[in-house]
Each structure stands twice: as C-alpha cells, then as structure tokens.
Amino acid sequence: MKSAMLAIMLIMIVLLVYRIIMIKQIEQTQVAKDVVRLHTVAASTILFYAMTILDINDTVALASYGLYFWCSDFLLILFFIYINDFTQETFVNKRGGLILGILIAIDGILCGINVYNQMLFSVVLSGDKAEGYYYKVTSRTWLYSYHKLFVYMFAVMTFLLLAYEIYKAARIYVKQYYAILYCFLLMIATNVVYEVLNLEFDYSVLFYGITAAGIYYITFQYVPKGLVEKTLVMVVQNFTDGVVCMDIKGRCIYANVYARQVFHVDKDTRVIENYYRSWKGDRKPEEIEECSWQGETEINGKQNFFAARYRGIWDEDNRFIGCYYVLHDETEHRKKLEEERYRSNYDSLTGLFNREHFYETVEQQIVANPNVKYSILCADIQNFKIINDVFGIERGDAVLRSLANMFRNLATGDTVLARLSADRFAVCVRDEKLNHERYLEELDLISHIGDNNSYHARIYTGICPIRNIKTPISVYCDRAFLAIESIKGDYQQSIAYYDDELRKQMLERQHMVSDFRSAIAKQEFRLYLQPQVDEQGTMLGAEALVRWFRPVHGMMLPEEFVDVFEKSGLISAMDQYVWELACKELQRWKAMGKEQYYISVNVSPKDFYFLDIYTTLTTLVECYEIDPDKLRLEITETSVMKDANKHLALIDDLRTYGFRVVMDDFGRGYSSLNMLQDMNLDAIKIDMEFLRRNEDPERSRMILEMVLNLAKELDIHVVTEGVEQKDQLQYMQELGCTLFQGYYFAKPMPVNQFEKTYF
User: Fold this and answer.
1) Which domain CATH number covers 401?
2) Are residues 519 and 588 in the same domain?
3) pLDDT given at position 670
4) 42 and 169 part of one domain
5) Residue with more model confidence, 438 or 667
6) Distance between CA atoms of residues 100 and 755, nearest Å
7) Which of 82-86, 228-232, 375-379 has the lowest mean pLDDT?
8) In which domain, by residue range, is 726 found?
9) Which parts of the chain are coiled coil (predicted)?
C-alpha cells in the first residue's frame, strides 16, 4: 500500500510540475499566476507528505508533517485567492490580508517548534515489514486544534465564496463553479474522514493534485456548453451591421435587429424573403458568386444607406446549405463624404462656392452655353482688416455674410456665386442680367457698419466680360481685380470694367517692371534738381527728382512710373539709386567748393519696411565723404503712422547722426499736428495745393498762420512748394514763410543746367 501511495504521489508531482511549465509558456495573467502558485504549493504539499511515509527517522517525519500542515494552510489561502481573482470579486482587503499572514506565520512557527517538543503532535512508526514502515501522526494536543480551526475556517470561507458566485453567476457559467466546488468539497471531506477515523494514510493529499488538475482544466480549457453559440447569437444580434441568413428554400432563418430595421419588419420575415427572391431572380443561389451592392431605406424617419454583401454557405462535404448577406450601415460614411464634399466645394462662412469649385462650375457653364454672353464680376472690400481690428472679427464675418446674401438676392437663373478669399467675391452673371443701379443700391445698404452706421465700408467692383471660352476663368477674375486696382482710392467711382485700354495700361505696367533692372544698368534714370530758395530768391539747395529716359517712349515723369514701382515693390531700389546719385553730386560740389548747398531726397513709405534706412544712408555719406547735413531726407506722414514708435526712434537716430529730416506734404494726413508734436523735425513742406483745395480762403489763411506760428515756436523751418505765381509768393511771405520751391522760381532741370544757372 505504501509503495502504491508513493508511486501515485510521484506521478502527481511530475504532472503538476509539467503543468506549471505549460502555464508559464502560454499565459501571464493574474489568474494564471494564481494557478501556478496553486500547483507549486500542491506539489510541495504532496512531496512533504511523501517524506512522512518514508521511514527515515522521527525528526524528519516531524519536520515533514509540520511542513505538510503548513503547506495545507497555504493551499487553502491560495485556493481562496484564486477564486477571488477568477470571479473578479474582492472579499479580503489589505487589513484582512495582513491578519491572514499573521495567522499563517503563527501556525508555521508552531509547526517548526513541534519538531523539538511535540507541542502539537507526535509521530509513531507504523506498518509492518511486508507492507513497509511509515510514520503517522499520534498524540494530537489541544494546540493542534488551532491548526485545524484555521484550516476549516478557510474551508468555510472558500465554500461561502463559491456558493455566492453560484448564486449570482449567469446560468451558463454555473456548472463551471459547481465543478470547482465539488473538487474542493471532496478534498475537504477526505481530510475530515482521515482525521475522524484515524486512517493509515491521508488520502485527501491525492485530491490536492486532482483539484489542481481540475482547476487547470476549468481555467484554461473548459468552455461552458452552448456559450459559443449563445455569445455569437448575442454578438450578431447587436451588430451595427445587418445579418440575414437564408436556407436552401429561400426562407429567412435569422435576421438581427439592424436587418429587421432595414426591412421594417418585426417577426414576420416575408418582406426579407421577397427581397431575396426579387434580388436572386432566376439564378440558382449556389451558382451566385460572392457579390455586393448599394441600397437605401428609411429608419425612424431618417434616410439610411447600406452596402450589402452576399455569400453562400457550404458544409464540410461542399454541399450548398444556404446563404447569408451582411448589410453594412453606410449612413455615417455617406454623411462624412457629403460633409467633405461640401467643405471641398463651398466656403464654410458664407455658403458660397469656393475658388476651385467656382472656376470649375463656370467653365462648365460657359462651355454648355456658347451662345450666351457672360461676365465675371469681382468685389473687394477696401481696408477690410480695419473692420476686423476696430469692430472685431465677428462683425467682420457679419459683413462678409451680408455681402454674400446680397449676391444671393441679386442672383437669377444660372448666376454662379463664390467667395474667392478673405474679402474677395466673384460672380458669373449673364450680361443681360447686369443691373448697375440696383447693385449699387444694395451695396449701399450693407456698407454701413458700427453703431449708428458710423463707418462706411468701401466696396469696389471690377467687371470683365467673357469673350473667349478657352481662357481660364482665373484669368478673367484676375482681370476684374485689375479693374478694381485702377479705381482704388477713387471715392467717386466704385465699379470699373476691364477693357482694351485697361489691358493696355496693365501690359505697359508689366513692361515697366520688366525694364526696370536694365534701365538702372543703362543709366536711363537721370537726376533732375528743383531749387529751393529764400524770400530774396537766393538758392539754398535743391530737391532731387528723377526722370526716366526710356527708349522709344522718351522722357517719362515720375507720376508715370513711381506708382507702378511702388505696387511692384521696386520703389526701394529706385530710391537707393537716386540717393546714390545725389551723394555723387554732393561729392562733386564739395570738390568744386560748393559744399554749402544741400540736396533733399525722398524716402518712400515702403523704404521703412524693405530697407535698413539708417545703414544704407550712413554708408553712402561715408563712402562719398560728404556732410550728412547736406543730404536732407523728405518723408511723408503716412510713412511714420504705422509702427510709429519704431519709426520715430529711427528718425531720432538719423538726426543724431547729422541728417536733417523734412516732413513732406504736411497737412495731407489725418493727424499732422500730432506728428508735429511727436516727431523731431528740422522742416516741414506745405504744398500750395492745400489752399486751392479749400473753398474758404479765410479759413485756410487762419490754419496756415497757426501752423507757421507753431513751427516757429518749435524752431522748425517751413518750405512752401508748388509756388507758381507771384501773388502766391507774396501771400505766403505775408504769413511769415521764408523758404520756397516751385515753377515760379524754376522747373526741375538736369544737373548740368542747374549748375550753369546757380553756380
């Protein structure tokens, strides 16, 4: 009997170790770790009990029984922990775990001490020579009851936990928990029988291995009967896709919730069957290959779209047994596609076409209607950034929406509307539908902004007729905006047509820009000087002006090309060229002994942004070794208004270096007196045009007199330019002006003529 017992226990230990290795290779979950610990302790428990029935000696038997009993404690606790994790319950908190640890430690200490004084139990050699000798427990003391109480207490707790899980678990999982409970009860029952009947061997140790094997099977291999089928049914039933299954006779044997919604049926599936038969037609279902199609239906009052996919079903003998089709809900996908399509074709703020969709639509329209005359109308809001800055972005957006709504109200028939960018709009309209009067009336209604309509937005419109359908629409839009450029700043006109004359002007501007670099290289730009004199007519210096001696075109005045260069960004290169010509003349005058005379040069507003003015000018005067006082700088008020602090600091630096700074066109800006107060100046220039613009001469005289007195108080010289007649000279002399420039004294002249006249 002893040999059989040892053989069985050895086999169990080997199997337990094998399963430990298997589990570690396949899973690393917490439950898997619990099962590994259970197997490890179960193998140890069996091993220690095996050592008790080997007749080695009393001490080894006592130690082996102590370890056996102590491992039994651990086995129960680990079993409890396994149930706790397997069922995902939390019955023991950290404090309870600490108490359990203390109780196990006490039991372990008692078992260890028992080896020396047998305070728990004693062992006695039993058996006979034929069956073999072994040690068994005898003389159990009252302290041994502590160990048994601990064991049975945990047995009861484990039983209650399993009973609770059986009570609350889904029916399909109950058998799983019952299997664990039966193994556990059988293990405890055999232990109780061993204790009560004082059997030769503790057969419950065999159930430690059996229970561990059962737990391994239940944890990793057992799947409750019907679980897969029920799970699949529940999963399919709650699919967002519809699933319909048909048998070989065309009967609907299954349809999930979404499929029933698609076909508007509850229990009656005849509608689904009719749809299937209609789709199948005369084809045999087993001959229909896998295929898909699109469909739509109404669900809960909303239009829904679906993609259907058909497949046949064959058994293991390749015999046709039915088919199924899946209805994939395409509604959200279609919705997103529509939204993306809308965003790619429409402006999100106004709802009008965007640039690309406008070009495409108009091109299709004019090709489809070759006999209809269309025009492209483009609109641009002047200084729209000011509206955003002053009134806020929301008000700016409201202006854009108002302009879009105005175009909608004016649109008729096949008119196409678009917002091309920011504040730029485009319309393709039939020529016969253009109504300028109504258009201007509508513009006036939406152009007043702010509280009490305090701000009037200026909206310019350019119109370009479409006469060649092969020309891209983008070109017609560019031409319409070119027409707008031709009237910007003109407050009397808000609509301009692109015509041959404007086209000619635009081409000429392009030629000017393309000729600029070669004109500089060929010295086609020549310096002209207009003298500045005192009240006796004595020449003190001159203003540097420029003339372009352009081949074929002859001499061109600044008003013919300066505006072009300003808009094309070439003005700064022009200014640098003129500054250097002026410096060369001052150097030559210095060599001639005429260094008392100065030359004033113009500094354009764009120079403040595109040039390092200070470095450029100081480098020039140092290169040509001239007095910076003789190169005077004429700036306009508008040059300084933007980023005033930075530009005023630059002017101070220039004056500190030795340049004299003159404000040109004083009085044409909106805040000249403020500039006079804030800016450190050496002189101001007042144009006689100021008097000619004002219809009240007396009022003009009072303003001029006030300015002259203020300049005198600030020690700022005043130069009157544009003096053409003697009475104008006398008028300004009476007001106290002492410096003059104008045709009355001399027109701008070439340098050599200037020197012959005044040197």
Assistant:
1) 3.30.70.270
2) yes
3) 47
4) yes
5) 438
6) 116
7) 228-232
8) 514-758
9) none
**Both tokens assigned to 625:** 């070794």
626 and 752, same domain (yes or no): yes
Is 506 inside a domain boundary?
no
What is the number of structural domains in the chain? 4
Q: What is the dihedral of CA 162, 167, 170, 175, to 10 degrees?
A: 50
Q: DSSP per residue over 595-630, as a string? A: TT-EEEEE--TTHHHHS-HHHHHHHHHHHTT--GGG
Q: Which residue has the tokens 């179960």?
A: 42
DSSP 299-346: ETTEEEEEEEEEEEEE-TT--EEEEEEEEEE-HHHHHHHHHHHHHHHB
- Using the 3D structure, point to which of 220, 254, 280 is the last residue of a domain: 220
Do the domain assignments include residue 509? no
Q: What is the pLDDT of residues 640-677, one digit of tens each?
A: 777 788 889 999 999 999 999 999 887 665 445 666 77
Task: State which H helix or E strand residue 204 sits in.
Answer: helix 204-220
> Are 127 and 202 members of one domain?
yes
Please tell me whether residues 355 and 400 are part of one structural domain. yes
Whole-prediction pTM value? 0.52
Model pLDDT for residues 309-333, shown as the tens digit of each residue: 999 999 888 889 999 989 888 888 8
Structure tokens given for 261? 């919604």
Pairing assessment for the beta strands 631-636 and 252-255 based on DSSP bridges: unpaired
* Tokens, residue 563: 């505006």
Rounded CA gap, 714 and 739, in Å?
16
Cross-strand bridge partners of residue 462: 378, 496
CA angle, 24 then 29 then 32, to 5°? 55
d(CA 509, CA 563): 10
The candidate with the shortest Cα–Cα distance to 375, out of 508, 496, 501, is 496
d(CA 37, CA 14): 15
Instruction: Assess contact for 536 and 523: CB atoms under 8 A.
Output: no
